[in-house]
Amino acid sequence: MLDTFRKLYSFRWLLSELVWRDLVLRYRGSVLGFAWTLLNPLLFVAVYTLVFSIYLKNGIRAYPLFLLSGMIPWLWVSSAVSAAVTSILDGRTFVGKTLLPTELLVIVPVLSNGLNFLITIALLFVVSLVLGVNVAWALLFLPLLLVIQLCITLAFALLVATFNVFYRDFQQIVSYLLMAFVFLTPIFYLQSAVPTNLQWMVTYSPIAALISAYQHVFYFGTPPSWRDLLFAGVFGVVLLLIAVSYFNRNRDAFVEFV
Fold first, then answer.
1. Span 134-172, pLDDT tens digits
2. For residue 58, what are the CA distances in angstroms to 53, 69, 155, 162, 224?
3. What tens digit of pLDDT does each residue of 209-226 get?
4. Of 128, 161, 170, 172, which one has the fewest beta carbons inside 10 Å?
């Protein structure tokens, strides 16, 4: 892990350039450009609010804020993993043929989507103020949540990108897994709405714990529960260690398969 961090630090200038290039290329040719960073979650919220709050009448107070506080963190995870799963294959011209560390190919979509997240999170502050939610000192936990989410997102990205090099069908499976996760995680509904016999699916989900922590800060205006922080934090660190180990163990075989 330390060797990986040292290598990334030595290529930090290239990493920043690649992240910026990824952001620019994403919106090249579009009229609204970076405005889509804010428009995308707003369009999601408009549709899901119509379905869950008006059609299905779930009765959740200030539903747009509740939805945003879970949707915006989830978009970072899902967008980064979706882009990272093919990142090594897409960058095959660099694998084993240049000094570019292969892990940079995976980290770029994680960081570029992380910057999108930092921009869109401004929406939560605005909506919280409009709806009168006092986030106040609960915001002190935000940097910790960002670190935990970075660990979890990077770990998933490294795992799926590595696995997809050897099993190309996996990128199709990832899209379905992400679709399942978004509905199995209490983003559109309260955790109390989950049937008792299925509560374990939420209780033992680190993603649900992370989303719950964000909802506590921005929707309830209270500090996250220590159980959520500890569970998500320990899971993120352990999974990242496993992911880096798995990536490094298979690094030399990438050239043969890409």
1. 777 888 899 999 999 999 999 999 999 999 999 988 888
2. 5, 17, 34, 40, 23
3. 999 999 999 888 889 999
4. 172
The pLDDT value recorded for residue 209 is: 95
DSSP string of 28-69, one letter each residue: TT-SSGGGHHHHHHHHHHHHHIIIIIIIS----TTHHHHHHH
List the structure tokens of 107: 């980290």
CA distance 65 to 194: 20
Number of residues that this document lists for the chain: 258
Write the burial class of residue 42 (CB in 10 Å: 0-12 exposed, 13-18 middle, 19+ buried).
middle
Pair of tokens at residue 159: 């795992």
Instruction: Tally DSSP H helices, then E strands, for the chain.
Output: 12, 0
Give per-residue pLDDT as tens, 66-116. Answer: 888 999 999 999 999 999 999 999 888 888 776 778 889 999 999 999 988
Nearest alpha carbon to residue 190 among 62, 47, 46, 38 = 62
